[in-house]
Every structure is written in structure tokens, then in C-alpha cells.
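hey m, so remember when u said the C-alpha cells were messed up on ur end? i reran from scratch. heres the input so u can diff it against urs
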Amino acid sequence: MRKLYLLTMAAMAMVPATLSAEIPKGYYDSLKGLKGAELKNALTKTARPKSTPSYGSGYGGTWYYFWETDRMPDGKTWRNRYSDETFTVGSRGDAATGMNIEHSFPRSWFGGKGKAPDNDLFNLYPSPSATNGDKSNYIMDKVAVANTDKSDGYTTIGTSSHTSEAWAWEPNDSYKGDFSRGYMYMITAWKNDVTFTSRAVNFMNNDLYPALFDWAAQLYSSWCRLDKPDRVEIDRNDAIYKIQGNRNPYIDFPNLFEYLWGDSTAYAFDPEKTVVAGGGMYTPGDDPMNPDKLDPTNPDHFDMMDQIYYADYTQGDFNATETTVKAPGTYATVWKRNSKYGWVANSYINGTRYESDGTIYTAEINLDGLTNAYVRFEHAVNFLPGKYLDYLTVMVECDDVTTNINDKTVWPAGNTWNFVSSGVIDLSAYAGKKVRLGFRYTSTTGNCGAWEIKNIEVRGGSTAGIDDIYDTPAPEFDPTLPAEYFTIDGRRTDASARGVLIVRQQGRIYKIMR
């Protein structure tokens, strides 16, 4: 029997627990001893993204990654840098109601939608729709006279202090440094790829160095000095590195701007003798993208592990099947798929409560080659406050044996339509086998709730690493199934990429060429 030796490749590391930035070993070596134009040229090569997300909602889109970069610690609201309004987080990948994807450095300055910088997360933030519209494509400047109709005391819109432009916008004091470092990043990372036009010419030219006009260099530098990188900005930098494979050097080195536009332009830059974000000196650590960082036995590393299975039931049925014991009324099944809510079971029909019993099962999920596996899904329960465990069951089916895992599942309150995460549920007891996840809904003429399953994701890994040995042939790569794509040097890319690619799918790694 043929034996296959497979290498398990891990995803990216978690956000560091310490305040200081965790800079990958060797990431900034090329900057040592440089100054002025040479330093900025080297920064352009270092800072540019290896890949960027798709734009908008859905799996792998901008909102999907905002989940990692811009959720508040409560996990329920989006971080809003433009006003004091609060916006609720929905399901991962869903656009937030009342918010836009805002280009801090306007897209019209670099050629519009579809141009290279358009999807760069370092320039994108969740923003209130109204503020996004009011901000328009104005330059960032100290506002001389505020327009009270468009200024809310958080983001100020008004006349520019330094140019003849009629309008400018000024961020809140707590984010002045963030946005200044973002502007510095944009004119550094993308300068070789686009020509900045429109209102951008009021604060910069298209020379590679120094690019910023004196007034802009002085203003943004002063804002960087007053508002240094904090925990939020450091975490976001680390999170985007895991997604795009690049970092904002002006966050990692809070004094870097001084070597280009400030008080140290006459001096050569040395990363090992420069303070880093959070304090302390630069001491290169291990690369956070190193697979050795992953611990497959730790459920907290769920988002780092190989994605084995993913189904967004608002987008399709993903070959789910139902076993119906008793359907409500004249219906043939209990579960119905809805393009907004996913799989829905609700036997209250036209004012009548019906007795029913039906289980929706996922397609078969292959956990072969894994030593540890986990599942997480989003669900909502209504009209069953405090009683849902009497009528609803989450189960694992394996080897014709069904096991109830209700006690491992995080449940909604049972009286709202709000989706909640099930939490990460350990499936490691089934590693190496094939399973189906089932959701059994029952009701009576007295108690008739509603249950919605919006999506489901299974991830896993192996503690055996490169020495994993399997006695069965490896399945062929299936481009129709969920997968994660990487360039040959390990940088994340998307399914449309060409050339030699490394693809991670269902716990296995494939090398393909297009």
C-alpha cells in the first residue's frame, strides 16, 4: 500500500500579548545604513503588500478581515474612528448596517476602483456612511473654519489651513497619529505603482522623495509626535501583516518619519538602534508567519489552523441534507434555506404551532490527516427562552454513531434574532475520520421556536508535522471546495493568482501551477 508523506502548513500567528510590536526577523534588514531618498526607496519595496483582500463583503473580502482588524474588544461593535456612534457587528463577512468601507487616502487620488491600492487594509476602515460622504476626497489638514453642518465634534470638515482648497478634513485628536502614519505609508508603499492625482497634489508631489510638501510633512510629523502608536494601532499592524504579508513601518518605528521629514534627515537609519512601537529597542523576533507558532492542541489558535470545511448557508445549501421524522403542516421538510439567514427551522406557520422533528446535516467532512479538529458556527434562536435545550440539538455523526454536543455549544438567549457564535467546539476525538455535523429541531403544539444556522467552519491541524504518514492515497485538489492560496514563498494570495501556488485544503497542502 502506498504511503504518502504530507507537510501540514499552519496559518498566521495570534496578535502578540505584549505592547511592543513583534517585528519578524530580518524584515527591516534592508533599511540599515540608509537615509533620505535611498531609505524611502527601500521602504517602498519593504512596505508594499504581498496580496490584498477582495473588496466588499463575503468570505475573503474586506469586511471578512475587518473582523480581525477592527472589532472592538467586546466583539459586538465596530471600532469607529470617525464619530462617537456605535455600530453593531453582524456575521463575519457581512457589511455593517450604516457603515461604509472608507478610504482614508481617497481612491480618486490613485485612479479609482480597481487600481492597485484600492483593497489595501492599511488604508481602509469601517466608517459611518454620513462621515464617509462628508469627508469626500478632501485633503487631511488642520481645519481653519469648521463647517458646523458637517462636523460632529469628532471628525471636523471645514476650510484648509495650508492650501487654497475650499475643504479639508481633520481627524479626532486620538487618531491624528494613526491617519498621519497611514498617509506616510500610502505615499511610500504605492508610489512606484500609481501617480497620485486630484486633490492629492495639494499636499504632495509625485517625486519619490520627499513627496510631502513642507507644510504637510511638518503637520503630519507633529501629529505623529503627539499621538504615538498605541495598543490598538500595534494590534492592527500585526493583524494586517498576517493577512497581506506586509507591515506599516511608521507604526513599527514611531520615529522613522523623523529620518524622512523630521529632525533626523541627515542621519542614516538603523533599525537595531531605533525605538519600536510600545517602547524599547528593536530586537528581531521569530517571524509570526512561522508555522511553528501554531499549537493545534490549543483551541484559541482556531483561526490560525488549516480550514477544512466552510459553508455560508446564505450563499447555498453546500450539499446539506435533511432527515425528516415529522414535517409541520403540509410541508415536506422542517428546514428551509434562506439567502439572508441560512438554514431556518420554524414550525409556527400561519398562526398555528405544529409538532415537528427534522435534522439538517452538513456534507461529509474529512478529518483525515489531522490530530486536532474544531468547529465553529453562527446561529440564532427565538421564541424558546430558557427551553431551547429541550427542543434543539447539535450533534456529530461518525461511524454511524450520533453524539450530542449541546454541552459544548454556546447558545443564544433564545428570545432574539441575534446571531451568536457557538464558540470553538473540540472535534479532536474524531480526527482521522469522516464526520457530519447535525442540527436537530423539534417542536410541539405548545412550544414552537425558531432556529437559524447561518454558517459553519471546521479547522484543524496536526502535531506530527512533516512526518505525518497516511496509508491511503491523498485526494486530488478540488478547486470547487474552500481553500487558501499562497505564493511559493508563503505569502497569502487569492484563487485567481497565476504561476506556482501552494494551496491548503481540507488539512492537506498541494502545489499547483496555472
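this time it looks ok to me. The mean pLDDT is 86. if urs says something different then somethings off w ur setup not the seq
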